[in-house]
Amino acid sequence: AVLVVLCVYRMLRSKGNDDTTNDLGQPLLQSGQVQQQLQDSVRAHLAAPNGPPGNLRQWGQALPAGRKNTSFRASTVLRATTMGGPPLAEGTSFAPDEMAITFVNVRALELDSLTNEVIWLPVYDKEFLEPNLEAGELPSGQRPADALVTRNVWWVVRSRHKIRSDDAQIAEMLLTKPTTLADIAKMPFEIKQMWLRNELDQRTLPSTVNIMVSRDKLADALRDSFRELLHKGGADIQAVMARKFMYAIRGETEFFQDVGGITREIYVKAFQELFSEARGLFLLSADEDTYIINPETVGDVALQMEEYYFVGLLLGKLLLDGLLCPAHLSLVLRKRLLNAPIKFQDLQGVDQELFKSLEWIKDNNITDVIYETFTFTDENDVVRELKPGGSAIEVTELNKIEWLTLRVRFALLEVAKEETEALREGLYEVIPPRLLSAFSCSELEFLLSGMSEIDVADWMQHTVYKNCNSSTAQVRWFWNVVTCMSDVDRCKLLSFATGCANLPVEGFVGLRSARGVSRMFQISLVPSPNSSRLPQAHTCFNTLDLPDYSSQDELERMLRVAIEEGAEGFFVTE
């Protein structure tokens, strides 16, 4: 395999050992240094050792004269530390300093080599990766005329070497010196996705696992196979899931026939069973497009917890293998998986009636109108206190925001808490949580389920208006902004307004309301004396409330804030 693999090395010039460093000269994290841990260097991830890896066939293998090396096998190199030694011990960090030199080490082919032997090529300067246009070199993102039509990557020539196109782009990104995950998080989604793919490729193993399943009760058979694999694999679950799984369907196919299609078919069928109403694990949310965890336990509690853990493992395995999940998770569930802040507005995608009731209380004076205490009645008709002694505390105009916060927290965070934790645990057994922390909730939807290709003309054609029309200035500005958006930002806007980043097969004409009836996308113009007000979405009705901004620039700025940070409203913490 001659795929270029990237790794970031840190070379320390003169760093003495003392009690605050490990045997590699890396500073140890002291207890309580939470902030430093949050800013831990991206380069503290495992990095490739300095030398040909022994676990990859064809590494450096001589090829017959005249034969072109066109293999694009995915990397299976497990990266060691930035010093080329053993993996970092728990509780250690590699903090950037002025004495360190950063360079990217890539695998490459020399153009004048007769053997097509793969070599390490250290790249210290981003300028090396820039094409020499006079010499006929192309930008890494430009597909050459002789590139294979079946490939999304190709060789790019730089000086006397050939480097893979996507790895050249990752190298360019790493040489901009993103030192923390916070730096990665600020980058465009396409770059972050490429970075994540590179990180996950480093965590795959070349060995294979053969799994035989029956088409009848396929999800059960797959769950039992995973259970057996993890039992045999011991404590290193990530190493078990990092191997390549090959499937065969009993009585229909053999293992050698699985070159990807059988695996995809089995995963799609398994998710259909796991998310079915009969299974009882998940329910359609209020938007009828995405799924939430069923708050009511059905059957054996221990088995259910195992099934949620199994679903998490499957989600992680799909991410690791670059496959898509056919089921779409709700915004609140994605936020809970990422431990992202929950807002009051998120309630409308879970319980529309409760949201309307609480929104009225939030927006109106309740003095002598509402008589409530800090309690609520759960789905089992049991009265529960929102805080200690809540049954003796009346809700007033002065304390209603506290009451609303606690009520929404119980509705969104306390419901199915153990089930969500089991799902999260399964996901993070496969994918390190720090890698996903660089992505927003909408971007997690793209990673798990892909993106729709949005036709702006179709969107405009199937939009209705309230308190405005297609000629209203704010509406014209809105469509100007959407037209200039990237595909990623359009999907974020679609997710913000409808609750899902993907469209029905019919396109925008196929949008449905929470009650399952046809409901086209609607723009509602709302008067806003306060120019700082953000656009607000009503996902159950596919409606976007658009304040009457005074300029297109102001509209674009506030719209981008809304789709990146969410709707207005107070946060609800766990």
Question: Can you describe this structure in just a few lines?
Answer:
34% of the residues lie in helices and 13% in strands. It has 18 helices and 17 strands. α9 crosses α14.
What is the number of helical segments per DSSP (H or I, 4+ residues)?
18
Mind describing the biggest β-sheet? 5 strands, antiparallel
Strand elements, count: 17
Percent in strands: 5-15%
Helix percentage range: 25-40%
* Outline: globular
Structural class determined from secondary elements: alpha+beta
Query: Which whole number gives the mean pLDDT?
Result: 75
Please tell me how large the radius of gyration is.
Answer: 27 Å
Uncertain segments of ≥5 residues (pLDDT<50)? 1-101
Could you please describe the fold and organization of this structure?
By secondary structure, the protein is of the alpha+beta class. It is about 35% helix and about 15% strand. The radius of gyration is 27 Å and the shape is globular. About 35% of the residues are buried. Residues about 1-100 have low confidence and may be disordered.
Kindly list the characteristics that best describe this protein.
574 residues; alpha+beta; 5-stranded antiparallel sheet; 4-stranded mixed sheet; 18 helices; 17 strands; globular
Q: Which helices and strands appear, and what pairs or packs with what?
A:
Elements: E1 7-12, H1 34-38, E2 100-110, E3 118-123, E4 155-158, E5 161-164, H2 165-174, H3 181-185, H4 189-201, E6 208-213, H5 218-233, H6 237-241, E7 244-249, H7 261-274, E8 282-284, E9 291-293, H8 301-321, H9 331-338, E10 342-343, H10 352-363, E11 375-377, E12 383-385, H11 400-414, H12 417-430, H13 433-436, H14 441-449, H15 456-461, E13 463-466, H16 473-484, H17 487-498, E14 521-526, E15 536-538, E16 543-547, H18 552-565, E17 571-572
Parallel strand pairs: 6-7, 13-14, 14-16
Antiparallel strand pairs: 1-2, 2-3, 2-5, 4-5, 8-9, 10-17, 11-12, 15-16
Helix pairs in contact: 2-4, 5-7, 8-12, 9-12, 9-14, 17-18
